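B., you asked whether I could sanity-check this one before it goes into the benchmark set. Here's the sequence:
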Amino acid sequence: MNFIIVLLLNLLILMPYALGMESLIFRQAERKDLAQLLTIVDTQAIQDRDKIVILPKKFRSMSLESAIDKKSMFVAEQDGEIVGYKKLFLVTDQEQKNDMLCSEIRCIDNENNCAFVGYADSSGNIISSTHELPYDFHKVCIYNGGDFTLPSFRNKGINQQLTKTALGMIAHEAKEQIRQQQSRSISMLFGLTQANAGEQPGARGDRTPNISKTFAEFVQNLENTNEEISFSHRRYQAFMPTFDPEGAELKPLSDDQSIPGFGCVLTYQLRNFHD
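And here's what the prediction gave me:
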């Protein structure tokens, strides 16, 4: 009897979570979402400005609109209300890629500031080693950028599902770029503030394990394999781009006025990729 009571109680606890997830829609953002997204940034996301990039007020609408038009913004929606968003895209512009690798991720010509070298596996385990990045790691890069979920919807896997949705949307484009670039690897670039990085890679609070697991699913689908895979993983000391909220120009503050963190690279060496 006690077992049945405990089982019923567990079901009651899980039911709202299950129902909430079933009613969520994950999709690419559209122009009609601009007003809602801007309101979320101005009133909610700005409260987490020590963890996510918040642009000066005068540039927010323009930046969101640009991300929507470039199909790099994704949203989670419930009953017509946006409850979370994520920016993710395949980096195809060479100038943008160079700036990202050098100024934001800081993984080019910056080995003195490399804070971690190792690998991450498809289960999310992070292990220190002498793993080297493939020489062409920068040829095909996915940028996993800013995301935000309303506080009342957190811890439900929304950001992870947004990431899966976004990766699914760019899969064909990624295959085409691999062929065009004749690349033997594919990388995911992302930044972490110290608050999202744990005391060390893989420790409690580090977002890398979940990112690694989601990226692993994407790569397995890309190569049409169920094999266990692993990524070269590096962290570089960096700073989250930080802006004056009332600033008149779109220029990050200096490092000493910014949030310390890491520029992160996960790189997979392609093995089974076929045309």
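One thing to flag: The radius of gyration is 19 Å. Otherwise nothing jumped out at me.
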